[in-house]
Amino acid sequence: MQTNNSQRIQHSLWLLLLSALLCGSVWAQRATISDKPDTPFKLATFEAEGKTRLGLTVGERILDIAAANAQLTKQAKLSAVTIPADMRELIEQYARVSPRLYQIANHFKAAKLDGLAFAYTLDKIAIKAPIKYPWNMLAAAVNYKSHAQEMGSQNTVNTDTEDPIFFAKSPRSCIIDPGEPFYITPGRNIDWEGELAIIIGKPALNLTLENAHDYVFGYSIVFDVSDRGGTGRRLNATIPGPNWFHGKSRDRGAPFGPFIVPKEFMPNHANLRILTKVNGVVKQDGNTKMLIFDEAHMIRYLTSILTLYPGDVVVTGTPDGVGTARRPPEYLKPGDEVVIEIEGIGVLKTPMRAASERK
Q: Is-contact 330 228, C-beta < 8 A?
């Protein structure tokens, strides 16, 4: 009887020890997957196997966030976290979901990605515009001194007493995906303008210079397609000045993407090189440190007039090197390709096609 009791006690002790070891192993695994922004990533909307997905970059791969989240939750026995399948919703809920995104990036950075069905190479997917569609897309005009000068202005701007100039581009009509064509109407002079885009992260109204950056989510690229005039009807003379709607709101006139870089991974947003190439030839070579109105001044001004919402896009202006300022002027033609690259974000490509090719 004593032997049996002793055996039962030993068996119970072994079970307790095994349970403790297993619990310790799970706890250790949980503890080793950091929920801090230790591994930089970019976010994207992409299509693979006929389905639109949200993606997160890890090295040269892009992970389907939903599938990566499901596998990590199961393997590491983490608490379930629901992540939105739409970029604008993800931005709205970023404070809640970002710790899990950090865990995904931190875990799969060290994992073997070959063979994982949700880890795609970029050549196997179609990158879409990151947000379809923001509520607002607002763009700064003449916001680099070098561009102002090439357009004929010699005026000095006082950013403390003067406001920036903005115009709106219709998100639904203007935004197109990376790689999608812009169609050139015969007789129009279409120009290139590569620009840094600021993505808003929280509802923002009446912000200050000091708190403006708190409301930023991240950064992307926009090609501000610009119509410099040409043949056709003219603006009536009731009010003198340029027709901003005609020049900036052309259908498909805002190629957008390919990625959004969350602001925690882009502390140097005020010092980024911007390159625009046409058919491989550099046309613009600028830097965001040369902005006349910086991020804080732009956001302060816009939110003094209207509320900005999560996912809204603030397009910050273009550096010098546009086609219309060249002598003789240069404009895009069907068959050209515009490539805009901003360091740390990526490359946005837009082919030019004739309007007759549009289906």
A: no
CA-CA distance, 68 to 105, in Å (whole number)? 9
- Name which of 295, 226, 291 is nearest 267 in CA terms: 295
Report the sign of the C-alpha dihedral through residues 269, 56, 45, 176, in that order. Answer: positive
* Residue of 28, 108, 348 lying closest to 220 (CA atoms): 348
Number of alpha carbons in the 13 Å side-chain half-sphere of residue 63? 29
Q: What is the pLDDT of residues 135-156, one digit of tens each?
A: 999 999 999 999 999 998 888 9
How far apart are the C-alpha atoms of 359 and 345, rounded to whole Å? 32
Quick check: 223 and 255 in contact, CB under 8 A? yes
Calpha distance 138→166 (Å, rounded) = 7
Which amino acid makes up residue 331?
Answer: Y
Q: How far apart are CA 67 and CA 39, in angstroms?
A: 19
Q: Identify the sign of the CA torsion 197, 172, 133, 48.
A: negative
pTM of model > 0.85: yes
CA separation for the pair 285, 192 (Å, rounded): 13
For position 20, what pLDDT does the model report?
Answer: 46
Q: Classify 340 as helix, strand or coil.
A: strand
Rounded distance between C-alpha atoms, residue 350 and residue 278, angstroms:
10
Compute the distance between CA of residue 136 and CA of residue 200 in angstroms, rounded to an integer.
10
Instruction: Using DSSP, state whether 74 is helix, strand or coil.
Output: helix
What share of the chain has pLDDT > 70, as a percent? Answer: 91
What's the pLDDT score for residue 190? 98
The SS3 of residue 3 is helix
- The residue behind tokens 């209207």 is 306
Residue whose token pair is 């610009």? 226
- 18-44 pLDDT per residue, tens: 454 444 444 444 448 999 999 999 999
231 contacts 187 by C-beta, under 8 angstroms: yes
Q: In DSSP terms, which residues pair with 218 in a beta bridge?
A: 199, 262
